[in-house]
Design goal:
Length: 370
Amino acid sequence: MRLLSLKQARPGMKVGKTIFTGDGKVLLGNGMILTDRLIDGLVRSGIDAIYIDDPQTEDIVVEDLIRPETRRLAADTIQKTVKQLMNSNKLARRVSVKDMGLHFQQAFQAILSDLMGNPQILVHLANISTFSGSMYYHAVNVSVLATAVGMSLGYNRNQLLDLGIGAMLHDIGKIELPPELLKKETRWTEEEMEIAKQHTIHGFNILRKQHDISLLSAHIALQHHERLDGSGYPQGLSGKKIHEYAQIVAICDIYDSLTSPKPWRKRYMPQDALEYLLGSGGYLFEHRLVQAFRDHIAIFPVGSGVVLNTGETGVVCRVDPKYCQRPTVRVMKDGRGNDVRMPYEVDLKEELTKFIVGFDDDELFHMETT
């Protein structure tokens, strides 16, 4: 299968990966044949990209790091908690919500089980098009990424539990923000940003009252916008005053936000998002934490269309976890832009004079201009 922006999708193409709505319901099943009506429906649902199967790429498999049912369970847990809190009055939010921690422990244990069953934890953007934009799935993505980093750092199960649950709930304080602010489809003004910054304090105040949620998890909600140099918020903490868990979640939050589309911009290319994080090492975040994150990210995910420095274009078909930046590419067009009769594979680990210069779908990613 291969990844296309929805603007490149055409009637007659075969869906290569099931697409879900923001609340976990199936929007379009694997194997469905696209029609104009179905494409219009995807546009209305906020889908910006889709995996499709064709004869040249049908053997390319995009593996999910966690199972779709695990992702839906976690997202559903977050969604139900948000609704429960929003349906209560502000006074009730300051007291413990029955079994909140238990439900999140169950959801996280499913995530951890899937990750521990994966012999090579390498995060592809496997859900890049399979879920419409949703704060719930953003929270799950951040939790998965943070847990993968925690595992690479040798965290024990209890540490992973505090980290993963804190990651799932890092933005829970947004329920206290004005609804019109969360629904706004343009960038926030400076005044709106100052209001939005309060979600960190709101989140901490909600979580610290939950008797079965760790205080460390609550501090993730409070500190995930703090930065090593003291430039963050809400307290302007610096250095070791910022908990390591909060730094990990901050890194994962930034990466997932940048590589997700917003109403006012396309998604950033994975390598651009990673380059930003690498540049912030030692400045905004500890170097070793950024490096631990980098070691588990496939910046050219399987199924993505790429362009080589030779002008050849193709689809990433394999990624060696030891050489994430040098995948194997199945070439579909030669350097002159002509379709090749027999697609061939280029292993960039072996052919060192060739390298990827970008993605071939201009509609999918935000391109930095200088």
